[in-house]
Amino acid sequence: MKVNQKKCIGCGTCVSICPVEAISFDSKGKAVIDQKKCIHCGACASSCPVNAIDWD
Prior knowledge:
Elements: E1 2-3, H1 13-17, E2 23-25, E3 31-33, H2 43-47, E4 53-54
Antiparallel strand pairs: 1-4, 2-3
């Protein structure tokens, strides 16, 4: 999974829905996915209101 930083609005929906806590915010308030923790379940991508998360 990968976050499109230009589309991300920093709403936190993906952070709250991730079952393995693989998503956090960077210093600019944008979501970042820890690829080592991510299990590619797709929950974040399907919950993102601006479609900022895509499969790699």
